[in-house]
């Protein structure tokens, strides 16, 4: 396996980490990976138009894309920002956005505005009155005008972009959606996407959203995919063993010194792996016991290990063992 | 030019032969332009430097720490433009000119057959003809020198203490045998020394022995003893030992095309396949060495060499020259052989004709410095490290070979628990430790006074202050060391024992 290759997974301009860096990410159970991708199956997967609709719902849409204008209106009595939505564009992309939804989204966003500052004029127009004193009004207005177009009004903000992928199956063209980014729960809940068949390649996220067994399956699938893209096939049992080892404690533990620490509780084995002094000091402070069960401890203490041929010991049956008495034979019986 | 009597012709430009693109060690390689570049690199950078030949013209006068010399160097059959320039300068070169002496070339011409032979030449190994080795092919001698220094009393001027003066001399030594030394502390010329013998006897007046002893892998016959003084005011002595080495299994050889290989089997001459003329190969190389390495240069060299040996006129194999394959095949055909270098051979054991033709031809082979005698490691029990009581690491100090973590993982994967236990415990640092069963601590072995006046040495538990209930367990010395080191840090290990 070469060190780093980028494979265009069937779609142009789509990057997926492969090769040794990807295997490292999987085995270390990295909380943040470089190319998280969610593969979403559409409910209706042979229509390109519906696919586009779902893509629009999933992708992050900001206010600047759907607003016709964001204008500062200064009258003699008040100064405010008026946002006008471009209804034709919204209809064309089949999103259901209206001024009410925009108001809720602005309130949820990072801009510090309260309920009373935003007034819905009609289904297309919003008026926003900036808070604060009148002396800094101009500054407030302009800063709001710059920040408003970046408010996300539709879709999940952890999703970077979504791409429609065309696959050929049984001589029929099928579409599915490839979503770059995290946010599996939100994507699964989106209308038009079959949540039961959606999966991600980010193992920690799968563990969080779907559960530990799904995370185990995801580890196996990801390793299989990475190896297959380099033309190597491995028997599935090896990957099953690794996935079982990483998930047997109920959460996904990486094969790093933190993960191994949570997997095992033998002091000698952990001390012989990494961070020797720390483990020994902590163990002595807490008065730990170490049952010499694992291989490393048996080697340290010089006992044959208890796996393989060491699983059993042979006992010999001696029938009618002679009772020997030490000393002189009695003269008189 | 001027001796011819004509006026000198003026040149403005001169064209260099295309092979001058390459350096000396590369332009000696025949048909280098037919070989893959990596193989040409291996040959010119590595193998030509590691080949055994004639390294100096005055080997009898020099005392080097380690030299090799080939007994019978031979000039290769082919010539190249640049190898001709190694000859005596000033003589006109060409077919009648002086060719360089065979000592310039570090190899011998061997008859090479490209064939499988009983499966002993797989994976880059060679099968060689034992009879040709017994006749002296690829035999070489190796000279190793040992130096020792002693202070020169007259040069120093001041008189040091009488007991400290170190002299060369023969004395009864506990560290080795002194049978081969003369009275002046040096062995006589022609003495046969082996491992454990003393090479140079050096002793102080007080009786302390500073002699130099041969290590366990070295041996030889004394060739030269030199006594001299250097400018620092010290007398020094050098003893050279000579060893003759016939190729044995594991010695490395290489052709001139980067096809290195290790001797795999020595076959007797009568078992080899022979040709109609009775020619038997010296070296049998596996045909699998050629497809992935892409060195047809060796095959062309063998075909060209065959033609030259039969008296052909085509002799030059300069890289980038225009000797074409057609010329080589014509030369072979004129000499009466098959055009493509194949031969009809007959089985040496049964005498039957072998149905397929075998490619045979003379190729220049080199013997490389890597010999198995210098690398073989063996040990039963031997020196141990004083701190951990585990075997030491070097070959020089009679050490063992590391059985690392990955090898341990392989034995675990096989489930071979007893094998792993033996390898890492019994054969490494097995020892015993005393444990007190009452307080579960380690009990030390000390000498303590006993009522009655005597002192006994035995295990004693300091915590319980008693000797009852102390058991002895088998643990690796490393574990006992760990326990004592942790104890010194303030962490105490308690052991639970059970009767086995």
TrEMBL record, chain A:
<dbReference type="GO" id="GO:0003677">
    <property type="term" value="F:DNA binding"/>
</dbReference>
<dbReference type="InterPro" id="IPR035698">
    <property type="entry name" value="RNAP_III_Rpc1_C"/>
</dbReference>
<dbReference type="GO" id="GO:0003899">
    <property type="term" value="F:DNA-directed RNA polymerase activity"/>
</dbReference>
<protein>
    <recommendedName>
        <fullName>DNA-directed RNA polymerase</fullName>
        <ecNumber>2.7.7.6</ecNumber>
    </recommendedName>
</protein>
<comment type="similarity">
    <text>Belongs to the RNA polymerase beta' chain family.</text>
</comment>
<dbReference type="InterPro" id="IPR007081">
    <property type="entry name" value="RNA_pol_Rpb1_5"/>
</dbReference>
<dbReference type="InterPro" id="IPR015700">
    <property type="entry name" value="RPC1"/>
</dbReference>
<keyword id="KW-0479">Metal-binding</keyword>
<keyword id="KW-0460">Magnesium</keyword>
<keyword id="KW-0539">Nucleus</keyword>
<feature type="domain" description="RNA polymerase Rpb1">
    <location>
        <begin position="1"/>
        <end position="267"/>
    </location>
</feature>
<dbReference type="GO" id="GO:0005634">
    <property type="term" value="C:nucleus"/>
</dbReference>
<dbReference type="Pfam" id="PF04998">
    <property type="entry name" value="RNA_pol_Rpb1_5"/>
</dbReference>
<dbReference type="GO" id="GO:0046872">
    <property type="term" value="F:metal ion binding"/>
</dbReference>
<keyword id="KW-0862">Zinc</keyword>
<dbReference type="GO" id="GO:0006351">
    <property type="term" value="P:DNA-templated transcription"/>
</dbReference>
TrEMBL record, chain B:
<dbReference type="InterPro" id="IPR007641">
    <property type="entry name" value="RNA_pol_Rpb2_7"/>
</dbReference>
<dbReference type="Pfam" id="PF00562">
    <property type="entry name" value="RNA_pol_Rpb2_6"/>
</dbReference>
<dbReference type="InterPro" id="IPR014724">
    <property type="entry name" value="RNA_pol_RPB2_OB-fold"/>
</dbReference>
<protein>
    <recommendedName>
        <fullName>DNA-directed RNA polymerase</fullName>
        <ecNumber>2.7.7.6</ecNumber>
    </recommendedName>
</protein>
<dbReference type="Pfam" id="PF04560">
    <property type="entry name" value="RNA_pol_Rpb2_7"/>
</dbReference>
<feature type="domain" description="DNA-directed RNA polymerase subunit 2 hybrid-binding">
    <location>
        <begin position="26"/>
        <end position="397"/>
    </location>
</feature>
<dbReference type="GO" id="GO:0006351">
    <property type="term" value="P:DNA-templated transcription"/>
</dbReference>
<keyword id="KW-0808">Transferase</keyword>
<dbReference type="GO" id="GO:0003677">
    <property type="term" value="F:DNA binding"/>
</dbReference>
<dbReference type="InterPro" id="IPR007120">
    <property type="entry name" value="DNA-dir_RNAP_su2_dom"/>
</dbReference>
<dbReference type="InterPro" id="IPR037033">
    <property type="entry name" value="DNA-dir_RNAP_su2_hyb_sf"/>
</dbReference>
<keyword id="KW-0548">Nucleotidyltransferase</keyword>
<dbReference type="GO" id="GO:0003899">
    <property type="term" value="F:DNA-directed RNA polymerase activity"/>
</dbReference>
<dbReference type="InterPro" id="IPR015712">
    <property type="entry name" value="DNA-dir_RNA_pol_su2"/>
</dbReference>
<keyword id="KW-0804">Transcription</keyword>
<keyword id="KW-0240">DNA-directed RNA polymerase</keyword>
<dbReference type="GO" id="GO:0000428">
    <property type="term" value="C:DNA-directed RNA polymerase complex"/>
</dbReference>
<dbReference type="GO" id="GO:0032549">
    <property type="term" value="F:ribonucleoside binding"/>
</dbReference>
<dbReference type="InterPro" id="IPR007121">
    <property type="entry name" value="RNA_pol_bsu_CS"/>
</dbReference>
<feature type="domain" description="RNA polymerase Rpb2">
    <location>
        <begin position="399"/>
        <end position="497"/>
    </location>
</feature>
<comment type="similarity">
    <text>Belongs to the RNA polymerase beta chain family.</text>
</comment>
């Amino acid at each position: 396996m070469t060190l780093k290759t980028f494979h265009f997974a069937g779609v142009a301009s789509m990057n997926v980490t492969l090769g040794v860096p990807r295997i490292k990410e999987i085995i270390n159970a990295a909380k943040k990976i470089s190319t998280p991708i969610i593969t979403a199956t559409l409910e209706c997967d042979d229509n390109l138009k519906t696919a586009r609709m779902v893509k629009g719902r999933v992708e992050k849409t900001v206010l600047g894309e759907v607003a016709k204008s964001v204008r500062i209106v200064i009258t003699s009595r008040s100064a405010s920002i008026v946002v006008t939505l471009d209804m034709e564009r919204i209809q064309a992309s089949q999103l259901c956005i209206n001024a009410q939804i925009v108001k809720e989204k602005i309130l949820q966003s990072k801009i510090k505005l309260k309920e009373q500052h935003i007034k819905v004029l009609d289904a297309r127009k919003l008026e926003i009155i900036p808070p604060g004193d009148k002396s800094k009004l101009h500054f407030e207005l302009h800063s709001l005008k710059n920040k408003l177009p970046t408010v996300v009004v539709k879709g999940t903000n952890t999703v970077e972009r979504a791409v429609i992928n065309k696959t050929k199956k049984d001589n029929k063209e099928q579409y599915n959606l490839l979503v770059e980014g995290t946010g599996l729960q939100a994507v699964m809940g989106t209308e038009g996407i079959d949540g039961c068949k959606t999966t991600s390649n980010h193992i920690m996220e799968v563990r969080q959203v779907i559960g530990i067994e799904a995370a185990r399956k995801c580890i196996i699938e990801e390793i299989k995919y990475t190896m297959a893209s380099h033309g190597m096939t491995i028997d599935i049992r090896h990957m099953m063993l690794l996935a079982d080892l990483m998930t047997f404690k109920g959460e996904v533990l990486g094969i790093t010194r933190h993960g191994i620490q949570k997997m095992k509780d033998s002091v000698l084995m952990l001390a012989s792996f990494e961070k020797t002094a720390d483990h020994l000091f902590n163990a002595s402070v807490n008065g730990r016991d170490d049952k010499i069960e694992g291989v490393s401890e048996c080697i340290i203490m010089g006992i044959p290990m208890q796996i393989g041929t060491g699983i059993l010991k042979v006992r010999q049956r001696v029938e009618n063992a002679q009772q020997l008495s030490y000393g002189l034979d009695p003269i008189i019986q | 030019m001027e001796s011819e009597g004509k006026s000198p012709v003026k040149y403005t430009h001169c064209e260099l032969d295309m092979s001058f693109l390459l350096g000396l060690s590369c332009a000696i390689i025949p048909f280098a332009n037919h070989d893959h570049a990596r193989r040409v690199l291996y040959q010119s950078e590595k193998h030509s430097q590691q080949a055994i030949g004639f390294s100096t013209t005055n080997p009898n006068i020099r005392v080097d720490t380690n030299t090799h010399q080939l007994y019978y160097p031979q000039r290769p059959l082919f010539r190249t433009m640049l190898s001709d320039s190694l000859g005596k300068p000033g003589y006109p070169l060409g077919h009648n000119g002086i060719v360089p002496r065979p000592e310039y070339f570090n190899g011998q011409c061997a008859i090479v057959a490209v064939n499988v032979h009983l499966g002993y030449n797989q994976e880059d190994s060679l099968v060689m003809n034992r009879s040709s080795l017994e006749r002296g092919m690829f035999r070489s001698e190796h000279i190793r020198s040992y130096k020792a220094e002693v202070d020169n009393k007259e040069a120093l001027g001041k008189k040091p203490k009488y007991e400290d003066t170190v002299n060369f001399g023969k004395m009864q030594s506990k560290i080795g045998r002194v049978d081969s030394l003369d009275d002046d502390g040096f062995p006589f010329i022609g003495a046969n020394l082996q491992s454990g013998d003393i090479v140079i006897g050096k002793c102080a007046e007080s009786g302390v022995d500073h002699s130099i002893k041969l290590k366990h892998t070295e041996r030889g016959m004394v060739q030269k003893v030199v006594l001299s003084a250097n400018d620092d005011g010290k007398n020094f002595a050098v003893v050279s030992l000579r060893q003759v080495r016939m190729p044995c299994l594991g010695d490395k050889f290489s052709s001139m095309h980067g096809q290195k290989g290790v001797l795999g089997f020595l076959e007797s001459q009568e078992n080899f396949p022979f040709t109609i003329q009775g020619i038997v190969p010296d070296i049998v190389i596996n045909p699998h060495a050629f497809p992935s390495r892409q060195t047809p240069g060796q095959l062309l060299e063998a075909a060209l060499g065959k033609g030259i040996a039969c008296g052909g006129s085509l002799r030059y194999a300069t890289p980038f020259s225009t000797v074409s394959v057609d010329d080589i095949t014509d030369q072979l055909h004129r000499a009466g052989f098959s055009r493509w270098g194949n031969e009809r051979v007959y089985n040496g054991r049964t005498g039957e004709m072998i149905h397929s033709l075998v490619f045979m031809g003379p190729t220049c082979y080199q013997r490389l410095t890597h010999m198995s005698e210098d690398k073989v490691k063996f040990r039963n029990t031997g020196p141990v490290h004083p701190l951990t009581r585990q075997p030491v690491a070097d070959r020089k100090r009679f050490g063992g070979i590391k059985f690392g973590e990955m090898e341990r993982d392989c034995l675990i994967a096989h489930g071979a628990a007893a094998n792993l236990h033996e390898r890492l415990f019994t054969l490494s640092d097995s020892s015993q430790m005393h444990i007190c069963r009452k307080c579960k601590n380690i009990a030390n072995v000390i000498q303590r006074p006993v009522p009655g006046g005597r002192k006994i040495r035995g295990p004693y538990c300091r915590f319980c202050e008693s000797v009852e209930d102390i058991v002895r367990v088998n643990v690796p010395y490393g574990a006992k060391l760990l326990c004592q080191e942790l104890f010194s840090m303030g962490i105490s290990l308690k052991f639970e024992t059970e009767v086995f």
